[in-house]
Amino acid sequence: MAYRLGIDIGGTFTDATLINEATGEIRIGKVPSTPRDHSQALLEAAHRILGENGVDPAQVTYLVHGTTVATNAIIEGTIAPTGFVTTEGFRDLLEIARQIRPSLYDLQFEKPRPLVPRYLCFGVPERLDARGEVVTPLDEAAVARVAGRLAEERVESVAVCLLHAYANPEHEKRVGRILREALPRVPLSLSCEVAPEFREYFRASTTVINAAIQPVVARYLERIESQLRKEGLKAELLLMQSSGGVFTFAEGRRRPVFMVESGPAAGVISAAYLGKELNYPDLISFDMGGTTAKVGLIQDGTPRITKDYEVGASAQAGTGAQRGSGYPIRTPVIDLVEIGAGGGSIAWVDSGGILRVGPRSAGAEPGPVCYGKGGGEPTVTDANLVLGRLQPDHFLGGRLKLDVEAARRAIREKCADALGMGVVEAAYGIVEIANAAMVNALRLVSVQRGYDPRRFALVAFGGAGPVHANRLAAEMEMPTTIVPPSPGTTSALGLLVTDLKHEYTTTLIERLDRLDLAAAEAIYRKLEAQGRETLGREGVPAQDISCLWQADLRYVGQSYELNVPWAENRVDPSAVQQAADRFHREHDRANGFSAPEEPVELVNLRLVAVGRIRKPGLRQRKASGRDLSSALKDTASVYFDENGGYVPCPLYDRYRLEPGHGIAGPAVVVELDSTTVIHPGWLAEVDSHDNLILKKRAPG
């Protein structure tokens, strides 16, 4: 037997999914995360799920890992001491950054502190113009002196970003050779290899982030790989990228900036896979865990990809962050909006007497008050427990009994008394405030991007997602909500249903009507050769490799561009016209207008090299004829504002539900890793793949 193993580390829990390649059978596991050393949770999750299912580690063909270790290193400031080498006169590039601020009238705003302090930034004499022509030759003796200074300062990594290196990388590569000779054990990041695009600060920021997290990520991956090999796991080790593809541990050590949003990306990929199998091409994925809620949009079966992304202590909302609040990264990232509203988000009353929720989280240690692990501040989970939407005896399959009285006491002492209201009223307020924040995230990823959410289905997962999904769908007027089986581990499943992927870019700024077709095609062919060579080195057969051509276009005079597909394998007048037409349509969708009479300018040529991996199909099941009553576990008292308070609700065991069963709300469905709340006026039907499909009941 051969198996695939996916492990996704979250802020509160670490999820594991094991798939039997022959039968498609899926097994799940869940262990608490270990914030002090996330590798321990990964190893524990792997050990437990393999042991519980009697699987020998040698039977695992490949393991895919989703992790936030790169993001955490930046947010927590645990990056490696890094040096920065640039063109003479541009030493302060990181300090100057951009002349924008996220809040125009906030006089107290401070730009994020550069990841490389000024005394570790060095300029070397050299200069290229915008076309890559040499203006000032490279002073190699000066580079050698800089190498000596870097050695004296004992930096653990070095980033190199010379002016216009995207147009001509020769100077940058020569700097790299000199630094490697002088600092053979220090990893080196060159902008021409990490982000070969125009816009100096964005390119420098991306390269510096890659360098700063490289030693941290490398140590983490080496620790995992060493331990897994000791336990007999010989599988290919892969990592989820921010763009939704996977790459090898070796590539992750070399280019960790491509995995900054590794964990959240897996959930969107899983939702896209589910939608494709169920014939729902247009989806919004809603992933609510213990620490954050993440929302992503999928159109025509494909997640939206962006390069307008920031990471940092004050930019934890991903692509929904306010520009200028973090460190920009110019690598492909799934278009996510991430907010601090998870099950463990802490409720508190501010100095003005206003109830607030998040962004602080109780996390895995100590967790919500009701877990009984030392937590003292009320959370969204505690509020849901008080409202009856979580059941104390049916959490994590009964493995963890929740303390209702402790939750009530914490809400009363920390929130209700200060607000002059009852415990239940305060608990409902906590849940609704969290819901309001998540509705705003849904609007950011849909309405703000030019999409009507009423045309999309909502896929809800994560441990807390199905608890809140019905309320969010009603608020957004979304007609259908899909809750997959084992929603708490859906992100881990996403790790196993994606392909190997590598992204390549070259800047070429030319008007489309003046484009040198032969030169553009030559660039595409060069990028394609790089992609095929990399995937071949990773063991992908040639017949399983495909290359997607793309282009960044803008109207002449604009300062931003939009990405559109390019006709594959050809650059001719017809392909150029198709790209222009696609750009006009995309500009109209994104901005509400287009100008077909205006000239269009090419900015970047992009190529995505994809190595296809065989994916398991969804298992189908036939009903055995059991009545719905056979799945009834109990009756619970649950609070619904639309019903004016607590109402008796049937409590169903999801593992005993069968295809064709229909559950009229109000009702609650419990399983090992999540709870689904069905509101009054809604109906949940079980499909042949064991998904719960929630829709509004017809009147009468």
Gap between N and C termini: 52 Å
Structural class: alpha+beta
Helix content: 25-40%
Strand content: 25-35%
Q: Look up the CATH topology of the domain at 74-217.
A: Rossmann fold
Total of helices: 16
Number of distinct beta strands: 35
- Tell me the quaternary state: single chain
pLDDT averaged residue by residue: 90
The Cα radius of gyration reads: 26 Å
**Main sheet makeup:** 9 strands, mixed
Can you tell me about this structure?
This protein is of the alpha+beta class and 700 residues long. Among the domains are: 74-217, Rossmann fold (3-Layer(aba) Sandwich); 500-611, Dna Ligase, domain 1; 628-696, no CATH class. 31% of the residues lie in helices and 27% in strands. It is built from 16 helices and 35 strands. Strands 13, 14, 15, 20, 23, 24, 31, 34 and 35 form a nine-stranded mixed beta sheet that branches. Helix 10 crosses helix 11 and helix 12 (423-445) crosses helix 13. The longest helix is centred in the N-terminal third of the chain and has 31 residues, at 200-230. The radius of gyration is 26 Å and the shape is globular. Mean pLDDT is 90; it is low at 313-320.
Topology (elements, then pairings):
Layout: E1 3-9, E2 13-20, E3 26-32, H1 38-52, E4 60-66, H2 69-76, E5 82-87, H3 93-96, E6 121-124, E7 127-128, E8 134-136, H4 140-153, E9 157-161, H5 170-182, E10 188-190, H6 191-194, H7 200-230, E11 236-240, E12 246-248, H8 249-254, H9 262-278, E13 283-288, E14 293-299, E15 302-303, E16 305-306, E17 309-311, E18 327-329, E19 333-334, E20 336-339, E21 345-349, E22 355-361, H10 380-386, H11 404-419, H12 423-445, E23 457-461, H13 465-476, E24 480-483, H14 490-494, E25 500-511, H15 517-537, E26 545-555, E27 562-565, H16 573-591, E28 600-611, E29 632-640, E30 645-653, E31 662-664, E32 667-670, E33 675-678, E34 682-686, E35 692-696
Parallel strand pairs: 1-4, 4-11, 5-6, 5-9, 9-10, 13-23, 23-24, 30-32
Antiparallel strand pairs: 1-2, 2-3, 7-8, 11-12, 13-14, 14-15, 14-20, 16-19, 17-18, 21-22, 24-35, 25-28, 26-27, 26-28, 29-30, 31-34, 32-33, 34-35
Helix pairs in contact: 1-7, 2-7, 4-5, 10-11, 10-12, 11-12, 12-13
